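Model it.
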Amino acid sequence: MGVICGDTSAFNIDMNTFENRFNQAVSDGITLENNYYQRGDSIYVIVEGDTWEKALENANKLGGTLATINDEEENDWLVDELWGNDKASSNLTDKGGAVWLGQKLNDTGNYVSVAGEEQLYNFWGPGEYTDGLSKGEEYTIFNLYEGNDSPGRDPGMVSTVANRQFNTPELIERGGTHIFYGLAEIKLNEINDVLD
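Modeled.
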């Protein structure tokens, strides 16, 4: 079972270890695509996960956890990298236009980073935060679809979902519109890995 919160030093890995794990994950079919995205000391990979827990488990296999977005710049960078024609979002069609994030509703009624990060940035969709709290929606997702597909849900907006029980075998078989992937974030531990 993966780390749900707290110290994430165990998730800091070197680039060579990450590349070996990434190649294995691609071979095992647990990534959306044969691509990863690097920004500073973070690497992002879209991993399979028809439940939040499964996405977290697959993120852990890569040496990371589900992503926590820390600021508007990171949010915008992720949209630029992942959303649009011939980008990762185009592979999500009919498989859910959003990916799980590493924030979860805690016992005190706040969405917190499962990695224990203090600085969170959430570009909430209209009414999502209060709606999520009032309904006890436990998980957060990062939208990667255009507002035309779901008005008021633009790329990069964060939404909440109650649980993952809606991902039934029948829904998975037909594609559905629920969440089937998570955004893994892997932290590199060597400055040389960041500069390479």
